Amino acid sequence: VPSKLQVDLGAATCALLVITVWVSYQTGGAVVESQTNAEAARQVRSSARELDDFVARMAELPNGIAAHQQDSGSEPSKSMAAYLATVLNSKPIEEAQAVYIAFEKKNWKDTDALIRVDRQSWPNAAPVAYDYHDPAREWYSGPKSTGEAYISEPFWDAGSSKTLISVSKPVYDERGGLLGVAGADIPLDNMRTIVAHFRLRAPPADAERVDRLHGEYGFLVSRGGKLIA
User: Fold this and answer.
1) Which of 26-35, 165-174, 216-225 has the highest mean pLDDT?
2) Which pLDDT tens digit goes with each residue over 20-59?
3) What is the pTM for the complete model shown?
4) DSSP state letters, 96-147
5) I need a labelling partner for 31 at 20 to 30 A (CA). Which of 50, 90, 98, 186 fits?
């Protein structure tokens, strides 16, 4: 009797990520189905909390960058590149690939328009090769348009050879004017690990029942439908 359970995350990650779980098993009966669905829901909530905690921890990076810039006014702090290098160095490589801040009123070709330090350029800033004001640049246009913290769709980073997401937020001056966007590029490795450990039921005691669990899967899917894990 196949049964399908789809659960949307209910906390901060709910607008950003969705965990979908399919459960299939060979034993019939409404009681078994109810028990299986209840356990699946519990596991989804547990994994959602882990994802929420991780995303919240990564959101501290742009929060700190924004606070540092707000103390410096509308122009980039002279020590911003060094500050970003220190922030990046304080995190394990599996948790952060790059940190940055981009300024709203600057031309993208200005040397201090987008200050970004990644693992390859550290401790120096990496060069900018595109116009981040383009609405297609989701990491910038997302928080600019929503006025809130934003998680981008997954994207491939050629420099690190990793799939990343950007966690970014708008930076405002004391009058509420937009100074720019601060953020961090986060590898998906930790999120994939959380999903890899996803279990709907404990492994069976007898080897003959292993095949019955082969139809149980946990998927991590982005807001736009891209398969993450």
Assistant:
1) 165-174
2) 444 444 444 455 556 656 766 777 777 778 877 887 888 8
3) 0.73
4) -SEEEEEETTS-TTSTTSEEEEETTTTTSPPPP-S-TTSTT-HHHHHHHHHS
5) 50
- Asked if 139 and 150 touch (Cβ cutoff 8 Å), the reply is yes
Distance of alpha carbon 69 from alpha carbon 182, whole angstroms: 9
Is 131 a residue whose pLDDT tops 50?
Answer: yes
For the four alpha carbons of 65, 71, 77 and 79, in that order, the dihedral sign comes to negative
Nearest Cα to 144, choosing from 103, 186, 205?
A: 103
What residues contact residue 120 under an 8 Å CB cut-off, 6+ apart?
Answer: 126, 159, 160
Question: Side-chain half-sphere of 95: how many Cα atoms within 13 Å?
Answer: 16
Contact partners, residue 229, CB within 8 Å, separation at least 6: 188, 191, 192, 195, 196, 219, 220
The string of DSSP codes covering the chain is: -EEEEEE---SGGGGTEEEEEEEE-S---HHHHHHHHHHHHHHHHHHHHHHHHHHHHHHHHHHHHHHHHHTT-SSPPTTHHHHHHHHHHTS-TTT-SEEEEEETTS-TTSTTSEEEEETTTTTSPPPP-S-TTSTT-HHHHHHHHHSS-EEPPPEEETTTTEEEEEEEEEEE-TTS-EEEEEEEEEESHHHHHHHHT--SSPPPSSGGGGGGGTT-EEEEEETTS-B--
Structure tokens at 167: 């966690």
Mean pLDDT, rounded, of the chain: 78
